[in-house]
Structure formats: C-alpha cells, structure tokens
Specification:
Helices cover 33% and strands 32% of the residues. It is built from five helices and eight strands.
C-alpha cells in the first residue's frame, strides 16, 4: 500500500526522493551530529548516492520490512529540509518505526513537528498501525522536546548500548499508540472548532 504523493501541508511538501535531491541530501546527511543516527552509512557522496537510490524505491508498505521514505521539502523555496521514514517492523503487533532527520536550521521551528504529525497520521489512519516508535540520542534535546510535544511517551533509555567513533552512545525510545494519537487528533480538532 502506498500513499498518494505528494502530500501537501501548510508549509511543506512530502514526496518521494529523486536524483535531483543528491546535493541537498549530501548537506543534510553530512552533518557531524547526524552521522550517528543515520540508518545507512554516509561517509561520503558515494554512500549518500547509494542511500538515495534505495530511498527512491521506498514508496510503500506491503509487508514487514518495507519502508516508506519521504523527502520533506519547504513550499516557500522548494528546498529539501529533511527526510522521514516509516518501517513496518511487526505484522502481528501492527508496529512501525519512525525515523527522521532535519536540517539544523529547522530544529527550533515548527516544520519538523508538521512533518512528523503528517507521517503519524499516515501511520495510524492510512496504514492502520497499532503502535509507532522512534529512537533518538540522549543528547538530541530538540528531538526529545519535539517527540514529547507530539504526545509520544518515553519508554526506554538504553545506556552505553553502542560505540560510535570510540564513544559510548545512549539512546531513548519513544512510542505512541493508535488510540492515543487518534484521541489527541480528535481533541485538537474539537478545540479548533471551538475557537472558530
């Protein structure tokens, strides 16, 4: 099952990746602090080209292991500002993992929240997942705050679980259930009608 693309939000366009995204993706994935969180190695332009080729094919979820990968593009200037992916991890428990990476300049803006909200809507409303989880580094304060603001719950803190460039890494796991997400969306919609 594949969503109808592109998806347009108030400020963003979510679409599949194309070869034209290579330069922007090199800049995005080349951030030193982003390297430890990438699911594909990105040591150089060739690695990022290889990852881009794979992401360009990840357009739907039909069975466990499938990945939906979307480019996050700003409407105002059509610039690639992030990437999102949703991986179907478990069919029996109807679970998916959400991954994201945004340009440093967006970390204090609302664009990442808008993009993640759209992907979570897809996960629960279109794909029918029961639970969506995501991981982030313990030092990623912006990501932690963003996930909490979206209503995701901290479920685990893995201490010194992996080595990255000779340094122990710590990882946090956040999750949200379908009923929690849908209830939160219903409350927001009700509040918007009250204001109108």
């Amino acid at each position: 099952m594949a969503p109808e693309l592109p998806i347009t939000t108030e400020r963003l366009v979510l679409r599949g990746f194309t070869l034209a995204d290579l330069d922007d993706l090199v800049m995005l994935c080349g951030q030193t602090d982003a390297q430890r969180y990438l699911t594909h190695p990105a040591r150089d332009r060739a690695d990022i080209q290889s990852a881009l080729d794979a992401m360009g094919q990840q357009k739907g979820l039909n069975r466990p292991g499938d990945v939906l990968c979307l480019a996050v593009v700003r409407q105002a200037d059509r610039r690639l500002v992030g990437k999102l992916s949703l991986t179907w991890t478990d069919a029996t428990a109807a679970q998916a993992e959400l991954n994201f990476l945004f340009a440093p300049s967006l970390r204090t803006q609302t664009d990442p929240a808008e993009a993640l909200r759209t992907m979570l809507d897809l996960a629960f409303e279109s794909f029918g997942f029961h639970r969506v989880f995501t991981r982030c580094g313990v030092r990623s304060e912006g990501s932690i705050e963003l996930l909490k603001r979206l209503g995701m719950r901290l479920e685990a803190h893995y201490r010194e679980h992996a080595l990255f460039q000779g340094e122990w890494d710590e990882e946090l796991h956040f999750a949200v259930l379908d009923r929690e997400w849908l209830r939160g969306s219903a409350v927001k919609e009700l509040n918007q009608h009250r204001v109108a």
